[in-house]
Amino acid sequence: MNAEPPIARFRMEHQPRRPGYASRSLPDEDAMTAQINDAFHLDGDDYSLAGISEGDLFDPSLLGLKPTGTCTACWRGYQAVFGIDTNRLILQTLHVNLISDTKSYSRIPGPGINGVTPTDAEGEHDWFNNHYNNINYHLEYSGGLLIANGFIRDLYIHMGFHPAWKYKCVRELLFENGRLTSNTDRSAQMAEIRQSFLATRDTSHSSRMPSRNEIEQFVERAFDRRYDM
User: Fold this and answer.
1) How many other C-beta atoms lie within 10 A of the C-beta of residue 32?
2) What pTM did the predictor assign?
3) Which of 13, 67, 151, 179 could form a disulfide with 77 if both were Cys (CB 3.0 to 4.6 A apart)?
């Protein structure tokens, strides 16, 4: 099952940003772009990270990293791959873009993390220029995560992160100081939310143009993966 829209399509539609691009501040055409999700490996399956209940799951700055977004499909400048090791939450792999400035786009080799030295970009159109593979860095996160796969293509919107209800299979993982305490199938609940949303959408079509404030709120929600437990 697809954890997220195929990466090949992203690579074709979102080539690395060239010098002179403005950063995202308003909901313009470049800002309204689907974002590549963080990934999660669990029991041999690949998932997208679709919801985080408590703050940030991972902050690159705590490892001395300052990512720069050079592609409209990844404004954060990094993609994290998480997993479980002996019942503990870990950062398995990290792909990050580190550059000296937005004029030369010269690569900055990242520092070693957990004894792993990053490798360089893998080809001309690689979004990232530092790849930390198998770093298995323990995270002390407390809260819930929604991980999902089986993305429903008919619900694709070309903006932000896709919420959990747009996937067929959704699991909620609960952690206490980085230790997994619960693993629950939430697919049925997400299906109910999906049906409710689609029913509301089908009965609320309007020819009225949304206001600028409504557009900005919609964009803000699209780039926010928080959820209430």
Assistant:
1) 18
2) 0.73
3) 67
Residue 228 in domain? no
Instruction: Using alpha carbons only, give the angle 154, 218, 69 rounded to the nearest 5 degrees.
Output: 85
Nearest one of 79, 203, 105, 222 to 159, comparing CA atoms: 222
What is the number of residues in the chain? 229
Nearest Cα residue to 57 out of 38, 84, 85, 36 = 38
In 45-99, alpha helices (H): none
**List of residues 6+ apart from 217 with CB closer than 8 A:** none
State how far the Cα of 61 lies from the Cα of 38, in Å rounded to an integer.
17
The total of structural domains in the chain comes to: 1
Domain, as residue range, for 12: 7-222
Quickly count: other Cβ atoms within 10 Å of residue 79's Cβ.
20
Across the chain, which distance is largest between two alpha carbons, in Å? 57
In a domain, 2, yes or no: no
Q: What is the pLDDT of residues 85-136, one digit of tens each?
A: 999 999 999 999 999 877 777 899 999 999 999 999 888 778 899 999 999 9
Sign of CA dihedral 13, 18, 22, 25: positive
* Torsion region of 189: left, alpha or beta (phi above 0 gives left; psi -120 to 50 gives alpha): alpha
In a domain, 210, yes or no: yes
Q: Is residue 101 part of a domain?
A: yes
The DSSP secondary-structure symbol of 122 reads S
Contact of 152 with 159, CB cutoff 8 Å: no
